[in-house]
Amino acid sequence: MKKMFLLFSHTLTAEQEQDAKDSFGVEEFINLPIELQTLWSNIPPELTELSDYLSPLKEYISNEAKKGDVFLIQGDFGGCYKMVNYVKALGFTAFHSTTTRNVVEKEINGKIVKTSVFEHVIFRQF
Prior knowledge:
The chain is 37% helix and 35% strand. It is an alpha/beta fold. It has one domain (3-125).
């Protein structure tokens, strides 16, 4: 069973799930355990080096991912760089999601309010 591991701080949309199933044959989506999700979503900006900080995540991946699984990696640029290189070194494929942004303007109480609506386009391989 092909899995997509989510190093990602959001919830996948239905469109993203369907694209992963259609494009890569993904059958199961793996969210990080809560403690690792917290770690990934809160990378401290003051850290000058991330290897030690990310080591629990690397250990989890080494123990859980199997040949053929894929990774969706998005978040802190430095963390993404480290984790993309890590999963690729293990022989896995890593992707990020591309989106279009549509700006919607509404007048509310005499003020113009702009809202950005993001829509999934494709998964792009790192």
